[in-house]
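#data-curation
PF: Archiving a pair of folding outputs for the training set. Convention for this channel: one message per protein, sequence first, structure tokens after, nothing in between. First:
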Amino acid sequence: MKGMERCSPSIVTYNILLRAFAQAKNVEQVDALLKDLDESIVTPDIFTFNGLMDAYGKNGMIKEMEHVLSRMKSYQLKPDIITFNILIDSYGKKQEFQKMEQVASYITYECLIVMYGHCDCVSKQEILFDRVMESEKEKKVSTLNSMLDTYCMNGLPVEAHVLFESIHSAKSFPIDSSTYKLLYKAYTKADMKELGQNY
């Protein structure tokens, strides 16, 4: 790192600079700094690559983000849950749903439902939830709660109510206290508190 001969930058220093350049969409400076890092005695860590991918992803620079992921793997570093969340969120915002689902296959249905919710892609999360309903896998309350939460997040209390009513009557999913809290949250936001009095 030029101009820093009298001090030894740590990986934290590199991480801060790399993220700043990526946020500024300055790919040339990022590449130069990565080259400098390769030639130094400092070893990049998972935070180095997650920070870069997050910055590129938020800027919609998918190609650059994927290049960083490849570099991370070349260092024998394994993606963690933060890496997966960054990839899913970035692909979702760019409507690259096939890639999003490929990444999510390493995680859970709940994560994918939430990511579709953040993308305001209600129809896609409903298709995914129906797939869960039709499968013979064990039905988890966390999956139901994820669905209710995204309905609430997108201002769809009626849809949340209809889903819960069908699940409750069919007894197809387990229900816990969080389920009722999410319903009450949806009803309160829509000034439909009277519906919550039924439970």
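PF: Second:
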Amino acid sequence: MADQFDNSPLIKSIFRDSSERMEFFHKKLESEGVLRGIIGPRDVDILWERHIFNSAALLPYIKAAAGQVSKKGGSGKKAAVGDIGSGGGFPGIVLASTLPDISFFLIEPMERRCEWLSEVIDELDLVNTQVVRARTEELISYKKAVNGVSGAQYRGDRKQKRNPGCRLKRNGKNSYNRNQDFIGNPKLDHNHEAVFKQELAWGQEPVWDREPAPNREPAWNQGLARSQKPDRSREAASEQDNGSSFDSFKRENPHFMGFDIVTCRAVAPMSKLSGMALPLLKRHGELIALKGKSAQSELNKAEKEMKKNYAVSWKVEEASVAEGLEPTHVVTVVVR
């Protein structure tokens, strides 16, 4: 049985210039998705409405949030979106295909799904998209290690903490360097030797800018790095994604401060999702998640957990993709 939305004018209406990409994505899912364990057998005939159109409900929300990032950071500032639990590419592939001016990082721990995502990225020529094979816990730990603090995220309204990894060696004794800026550059007296003991996951010593130029934007605010498009044949994709894509991400983003936006679809209830997604956000970042009809109930139950992870506002909206399609629900959570 064919999908009722095959060749529908809705495809062009919703995806515009990226409609051909979405049609190719649909065909790939239809022909390979079940065999490779990406979708269930019952989903083959309802791919457009259940998965692709449903993911498209996030488009105006992601676009608006990314616009705010560009407005605050300047016209050259490119928003970075982390799609956690990307799976078969929902919503990450759908969003990345339609929003080429935004960087997308598809976070997925399973090898076979990472291989699938890498193939799709290559075949759709999505140069704004990168697969990161990792669990959210690994990314959160990496973000903490880079920041040099034990909390989920540094906040300006909390008491500043010195970086415990920096010690000043003086007369054979270790002491805190009193000229150490918070997660910044050590202003060292030339007679003293700085001993940095940060254990960075990628095995590199931290590099500090001794005298940052005035009005220069810090490296971690210049957007997440995106390596040049790699060779993503099946063999190359397997070699890259078998645990090494996270290492590559760390090498390319040594000052990782989090994503501007985190998105997801059908990952976990809000009480659990809050601890997975909110710590991955930059300051004033936003979680934009697709949810079902129980979204408001989930938010009510998760209020304590959201506040614990620095959420300052949250809401649920009913999102309609097009006339005749069942609306979905979008949860947005902003952190301070």
